[in-house]
Write a structure and sequence with these properties.
This protein is of the alpha/beta class and 373 residues long. The protein has three domains: 16-80, no CATH class; 94-144; 162-203 and 214-358, Nucleotidyltransferase, domain 5. It has 15 helices and five strands. The protein has helices at residues 16-28, 32-45, 50-55, 61-74, 76-80, 94-104, 117-126, 135-144, 162-175, 246-258, 279-285, 287-295, 311-324, 332-349, 359-366, and strands at residues 185-198, 217-230, 235-241, 266-270, 297-301. A hairpin with a 4-residue loop joins β2 (217-230) and β3.
Length: 373
């Protein structure tokens, strides 16, 4: 915008250095407020009347006088920029936020399973932390502190004694071994499965409609699924049995060992269930055959309350999601047929497990040292 000067032989308003600064701001500044004030100063410096400045749409006469007075009293910075304002003090201080977080981490009121946003808002008012607070503000506080009262996990605090550490180190040392087909590492576990049947025929999926099934169902009892997996080779073994008693365990273990005829030794990781011993093999197949099968194994028992160390748990999760899903399976025969088909597919695909938890990470996480450190 060109502003023609009307001042003749009169003293200019701006100093030479300020004039260069103002002209530079008019050309390059991205702050509209600063540019407008610079235009006002430029017009005043050239003797343009306040009425003309107003007619040009730059600023009203009152604003023009105010900016000029700011320049004359405080210099260029005072005319172009506002002073830093303290602003309204925050209603929600850090101390009050901490008190709300403490409430969210405390047990919920009687008769309630967990804290909700509504309950937290009412409790914040009741305790006098804030007179008024919205549910959205409570939600933001919980989100910032990664608090999720609606979620719970089932877990057990392990007793970190010498036995727990020794078994954990032993299992993790086996996992860290490089892959060797002559000495495979196999993990074994079992999973109960409930058999459910439809009371009414489900409706299949159609274009534009999702599959539907009635909420009512018929219970047909429960069965057991033995699962074993060789994580580094992607080999899977699945067997459906009526129970998980010793004879079923012995038969499944023999079938797994039979799949490794060329192995010198098999490292077997499993929990210390009472049936996970040599005795079921001897009772099922006799002393000689039972001991032959057991001697083929080097058994590594996981510590108590440490099922997460067994990679078969991960294998069971894969099987449950991909094979069982949310479908209702009515009979043990249907479950066995489906499990066999999935097991063949998993072995063709060689679905492996990438285990990353090492002994070094365990020592850092649990804060213990071994005699080798």
């Amino acid at each position: 915008m060109q502003i023609k000067s009307k001042r003749k032989n009169k003293k200019r308003l701006l100093k030479n250095t300020d004039r260069k600064t103002v002209n530079g701001l008019i050309r390059s500044s991205k702050d509209a407020r600063v540019v407008r004030r610079a235009l006002v100063l430029c017009a005043a410096d050239r003797g343009v009347s306040e009425r003309t400045v107003q007619d040009l749409g730059i600023a009203c006469d009152r604003t023009t006088r105010y900016i000029r007075a700011r320049y004359e009293s405080g210099g260029l910075g005072a005319a172009l920029y506002d002073k830093v304002r303290s602003g309204k003090p925050p209603i929600l201080t850090a101390q009050k936020t901490q008190r709300i977080v403490a409430i969210a981490c405390s047990p919920p009121p009687d008769g309630h399973a967990r804290w909700t946003l509504n309950l937290l808002r009412d409790e914040t008012r009741k305790t006098g932390i804030l007179e008024e607070v919205s549910q959205e503000k409570i939600r933001i506080i919980l989100q910032c502190h990664d608090l999720k009262p609606w979620r719970q996990k089932m877990w057990c605090v392990p007793k970190l004694d010498k036995e727990y550490i020794a078994r954990m180190e032993d299992v993790l040392a086996v996992y860290e071994k490089p892959y060797d087909p002559k000495v495979p590492v196999v993990c074994l576990d079992e999973k109960p499965v409930q058999l459910l049947d439809h009371k009414r025929d489900p409706q299949p999926m159609e274009p534009g409609k999702i599959a539907r099934q009635d909420y009512e169902y018929k219970r047909n009892g429960s069965v057991n699924v033995f699962r074993a997996v060789e994580p580094k080779a992607g080999r899977h073994f699945t067997k459906v049995t009526p129970t998980r008693k010793k004879p079923e365990f012995a038969s499944f273990l023999k079938s797994v060992v039979a799949r490794y005829p060329d192995a010198d030794k098999i490292h077997l990781v499993m929990d210390n269930l009472s049936s996970h011993t040599e005795k079921p093999l001897i009772e099922k197949f006799g002393l000689r055959e039972g001991r032959r099968i057991w001697r083929k194994l080097t058994v590594h028992y996981t510590p108590k309350h440490a099922s997460w160390l067994n990679q078969a748990e991960i294998g069971i999760g894969i099987y449950a999601r991909q094979c069982l899903g949310k479908n209702r399976i009515a009979t043990i025969e249907d479950l066995a047929t489906r499990s066999m088909a999935w097991n063949k597919w998993a072995n063709r695909k060689k679905i492996k497990i990438d285990w990353q938890f090492t002994r070094k990470k365990a020592r850092q996480k649990f804060g213990y040292k071994t005699g080798k450190n």
